[in-house]
Amino acid sequence: MDFEELKELIKKDLEQIKNSTELKEFSNTYLGKKGKIRTLFSELKDISIDQRKILGQEINEFSNLIQDQTEKLEQTLREQEREWKQKQNKIDLDLPGEKIEIGHLHPLTIVRQEIEQIFELMGFAIVEGPEIEDEWHNFDSLNIPKGHPARDALSLGKTLYLETGEVLRSQTSSAQTRYMQKIKPPIRIVIPGRVYRYEKTDASHEINFYQIEGLMVDKNVSVANLKAVLQRFLKEFFKRDVKIRLRPSYFPFTEPSFEIDMRCAVCEGKGCPACKKIGWVEILGAGIVHPNVIKNGGLDPNKYKGFAFGMSIDRLTMMKYKINDIRWFHSANLKFLKQF
Amino acid sequence: MNVSYNWIKTFFDKPLPQPKELAEILTMHSFENESLEKKGQDYILGIDVLPDRAGDCLSHIGVAKECAAILDNKILIPKINLKENKKLKTKDFVSVEVKDKIGCKRYIARVLTNVKITESPKWIKERLIACGLNPINNVVDITNYVMLEMGQPLHAFDYEKIQDQKIIVRKAKKGEKITTLSGLEYKLDEDILVIADSKNPLALAGIKGGQKSEINSKTKTIVLESANFNAKLISQTARKINLRTDASIRFEQNLDPNLAELAINRVAMLINEIVGADVASGLVDFYPNKLKPKKITLNLDNLNNILGLTIPLKEIENILKRLDIKLIKKTKNSLLLEIPTSRQDIIIPENLIEEIGRIYGYEKIQPELPCGYLAPVEKNKDIFWQNKAKNILKQLNYNEVYDYSFVDEDLLKLNGIAFNTLRKVKNPVSSEFAYLRNGLMPQLLRDAKENLKTFKDFKIFELDKIFIPQKNKTLETRMLAGIIATSEEKAQIIFSKIRGELNLLINNLGIEKVSYEKGILETTWDKQNSLIIKIKGQPIGVFGQINFNILEKFNINERIFGFEIDFEKLQSLSSEKKEFESISFHPPATRDISGLVLKTIAIDAIIEEIYKIDIHLIKSAEPFDIYQGSGIPENQKSVSFHIVYQSDEKTLDTKTIDMLQKQILEKLEEKFNWQIRN
Question: Which of A141, B391, B416, B420 has the fewest C-beta atoms under 10 angstroms from its C-beta?
Fold first, then answer.
């Protein structure tokens, strides 16, 4: 094929290009190192150097021209195609998003994780105790001797017993002495877990619910420390400054014992239905570990002091999410669970 | 206890704070105030006296003493001026024999004659009513009045009705019965302490009087009783016969036996003044071991260290004085103190620290974060793996549920679970909470059924404890179980999806390989459509379709899938270790193979064989287009794989790939009778 023929062919082909695929094919065929134009040039062996120069220049000019034209064409085609794509794939901006679902952790799990995290950051290790206890750990070790009303199955004690004589722990405190015996002071632990009560269920009572127990044992542990740790915890948990107050209380396993109230978040202490017009909400029980309990944990009560506290995870969860009935937690109702 | 504000006021010369303010002060220093109600000219404070203070504070004087200590006010206690009739002697009327000296610490009797039973005067009735008691007659009302005033329960017998004029304190005999003043009959036994005459029980000691010796309009002579019983015994009896009375709640805690004498004289004085009866002189008093005040040494450093503040010594002394606690000796850093017998709750120095702390005011203690060692907290692995597994399932669109630790009998029956495989609760609240669960599936199935009323597609799981009976113990262990309800109709699609989810879960717990095996035995599962999950050859759980028999019993018409995994086993195999695998930059080559094998051959087994050919060069073998049905022989399935070859060192040439491909096909033919299909 001579140059003129090739020129004609190229012009014809160029005119027929309809899309970028064809253009790419065209470029591959004629342009580039292996393209037909180059090949033609390399075939110019049998002619004189002068002719070769002239013809070479001509081929070069033609090649540049075609190159220019293809580039322009490419741009035109790309614009056309872009326009077409845009028209073809029109997006309706007003349609709603597709419903994508992810699972939900139980609110008690979420809150428990949050509580654990705060205490871990304050240097408290998380430990667990058995839910099925022996009487010694659940009662005797906590200064609740045989015959004490708290040990009763019915009336006051609300304790659930198994046919083996084992006890379904009535408070997470039952793990206190287990850890005093296991780890040496300084002890800083929190014990989350499920506890059991002989209780007819209603909006605020459950037969099993969740508690978290805190225990710190060291040479010098004071009420001032207890106050600070709990205040910081509540501040982190409720994500605001909280005011707390200590009231006298009684637990066999702590002395002195306290009930700890938090300033009502709803009314800021003015008194409202949420706090039964008191301005304060009871949030946990606490105290300085009774010397007998320290002794039962295998430590010398003259040397070691401790504070302990226990609070209901259910209650904190209900406060956090404003849940009005404790029975929702064990309802397994997805309309409830999917809210968290 | 219901406390009358006006009554409390009578014990003070100085004005008291307003009722609301007083209630608040008591809440912060003594006992929680639970209610405040205006009744006529009076206010009634509902005060929740703490159990260890029931011995001295279930009375108006007790509460007034608390107010006095907190407010540093002087308290005025009514004087007892008893006019006895010297011609009459109590001991000539009645004798007392205490047979149970452990059960009864003190027993005082006093006789009054010429008693005229009428209504009480208005002021007594008003105070009783204000405190929630019903007026009965003058004598009974006065004993109740003194109980509310001083805290000592008292009883009055009709003298004429006491057989042989003998009062005997003894344990009941088996078979004895008593009808109480409220008309209820109780069968007695040898654990119950009674007040008897020579023949019959007259009263349940410390709990309630009996009808036999009841005072009525004909009564002329009365015997007053003021006693002190063993607190534990009264507490146990009251709970045993399920009768808690105003008397028993006071005796249940350590009431001061020295109070008995003051109280009986106070009653006699009031009856004499109000009714005009004759008070026989002297007491019949059984009191072998007089209770004396205890002495306790309080270390002041301990006091300040435990409270976390420094209270000036003068202030400490002042508070102790206000609490009637006598300072006997003072050394450099300790105080020797004498505790009044009314405060039997004070036994150890810590009790005194509480007393001083609460009167001084806990609000004065400034919060102070503990300081000292800084050591990292040890991670709790159990909680870590639980949280991890829960989070993975959450991402897979599973919702976490909590069920009770208890299962009810009906649910067990539905699941065909034998009761003897479960641990029974000795004192269940109801049959709904009679057994401890030994699996999670029954409750999850019920949860599924409930949710199917509203939802078609959902996945739920629970990760919690189950309880397995052993000889004399009960083992607790953690299980993970889930339920999948879906509107997808093709079982295969659901099944494969769950299997993929389980793979993902297990892989993300740091376990590379999971395998599955047929041969499930548990009746919960549809044997044909369920598999055993295995890690390192160990079975850790099952998954698949729930047996239709069980679904029918639950009235579930939908196809339900589930899984149940021994979480403790799974956790023990989990690992946090991870190592980078180098990524090849040489081009991969993909080849497909297709063939026919028996239906029963597991795809996982084929994949395993493929990898065995060359674990380094065969990067992946992904099944696709698995098909059985028309065009395929009855007992066979058609299977295809994408096989990716890649070397870490060089670009693989066709020859190597062809050779590997050939080896694979030969191996599959040998192992699975693989027939190439085009």
Answer: B420
